[in-house]
Amino acid sequence: MTASTYNVLFLCTGNSARSIMAEAIMNRVGAGTFRAFSAGSTPTGEVHPYTLDLLRKMEFDTAFARSKSWDEFAADGAPKLDFVFTVCDNAAGETCPVWPGQPMTAHWGVPDPAAAEGSEAERRYAFADAYRMLDARISVFASLPLASIDGLSLKTTLDDIGRIDAKESLT
Question: What pTM, to 2 d.p., does this model score?
Answer without folding.
Answer: 0.91
